[in-house]
């Protein structure tokens, strides 16, 4: 990667990935885009453009204008929001991806787009889910992700586009607030633990889901994009994960730091049904073998860092 266009740069992944890549590749070489502009570090620390990814010509012209060699396509509706607005999700998630792929094909760019454990379905084996296995999701988000994996495979085999992607688990971050994902309870709980010392979970007891702390996710994207293409067998759907836990376990870890913390439950049927259709744990062996994936954070280390960073963030806001 030498010059990179990032779509959805103000989102959960984009907010941190953009800044990290600017550190590595130089601020002027990372072109951040989103549907809106804010006064955030992402918008102020380097080039920023407003871009509607469903506009094919605008996407192509943006990539051509900045002479990019890589497109990081992150703009999307997440799982819970996609279930509420399935047609909008299809239009944005699939239309935007097709436009990104077409721009990459015409301009000979590398392309990264994330997939998700949402690409799996209720008939997928739930424990140590293999890399290559039946998927058959029953959510619009999952359908989008499976379709996206296949579409990226097609553009690689048919047109030679250097497409790459990761099946992310739930991503946990202190930088951006939750954005409509099923796994967002594992982000919200830290904010509420600091603020109110209590949290009401919309995910039920005993519901295991794979998770990853954002620094590991950012490193995984950069390492995959820098990996030797000749060693990649699974280009667009690498299973990656760092930990798997249920709500009780994350609550217990927080209580080690905040003894008075209390967890209650009011299960949301929509998000619970999505969570129940996903794996408990996934197998990241292929990512480890093909490009050296390794996660640094487990639940304990992540909780230490999340609570520390959120407390500092709170102090800065109130100062």
TrEMBL record:
Coiled-coil regions, chain positions = none
Recorded hits in Pfam families, A to Z, give: Epimerase
Which molecular function GO terms apply here? L-threonine 3-dehydrogenase activity
Biological process terms in GO annotation: L-threonine catabolic process
Gene3D superfamilies in the cross-refs: NAD(P)-binding Rossmann-like Domain
Q: Where is the NAD-dependent epimerase/dehydratase domain?
A: 4-239
- Tell me the domain of life: Bacteria
InterPro entries according to UniProt: Epimerase_deHydtase, NAD(P)-bd_dom_sf, NAD(P)_epim/dehydratase
Give the family this protein belongs to, as stated in its UniProt record: Belongs to the NAD(P)-dependent epimerase/dehydratase family.
Q: Which PANTHER family match?
A: L-THREONINE 3-DEHYDROGENASE, L-THREONINE 3-DEHYDROGENASE, MITOCHONDRIAL
Designated name of the protein: L-threonine 3-dehydrogenase
Which species is this record about?
Peribacillus simplex
């Amino acid at each position: 990667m030498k010059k990179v266009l990032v779509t959805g740069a103000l989102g959960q992944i984009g907010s941190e990935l953009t800044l990290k890549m600017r550190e590595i590749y130089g601020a002027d070489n990372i072109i951040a885009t989103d549907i809106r502009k804010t006064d955030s570090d992402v918008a102020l620390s380097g080039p920023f453009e407003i871009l509607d990814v469903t506009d094919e010509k605008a996407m192509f012209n943006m990539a051509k204008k900045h002479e990019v060699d890589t497109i990081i396509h992150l703009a999307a509706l997440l799982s819970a929001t996609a279930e509420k607005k399935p047609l909008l999700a299809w239009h944005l998630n699939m239309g935007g991806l097709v436009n990104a792929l077409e721009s990459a094909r015409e301009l000979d760019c590398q392309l990264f787009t994330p997939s998700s454990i949402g690409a799996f379905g209720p008939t997928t084996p739930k424990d140590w889910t293999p890399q290559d296995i039946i998927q058959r999701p029953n959510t619009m988000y999952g359908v989008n992700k499976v379709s996206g994996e296949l579409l990226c495979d097609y553009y690689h085999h048919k047109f030679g586009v250097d497409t790459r992607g990761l099946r992310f688990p739930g991503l946990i971050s202190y930088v951006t607030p939750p954005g409509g994902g099923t796994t967002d309870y594992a982000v919200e709980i830290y904010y509420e633990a600091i603020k109110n010392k209590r949290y009401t979970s919309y995910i039920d007891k005993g519901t295991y889901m794979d998770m990853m702390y954002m620094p590991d996710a950012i490193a995984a994207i950069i390492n995959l994009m820098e990996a030797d293409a000749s060693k990649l067998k699974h280009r667009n759907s690498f299973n990656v994960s760092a930990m798997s836990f249920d709500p009780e376990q994350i609550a217990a870890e927080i209580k080690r730091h905040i003894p008075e913390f209390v967890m209650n439950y009011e299960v949301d049927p929509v998000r619970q049904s999505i969570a129940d259709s996903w794996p408990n744990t996934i197998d990241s062996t292929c990512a480890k073998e093909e490009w050296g994936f390794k996660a640094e954070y487990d639940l304990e280390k992540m909780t230490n860092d999340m609570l520390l960073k959120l407390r500092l963030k709170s102090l800065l806001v109130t100062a």
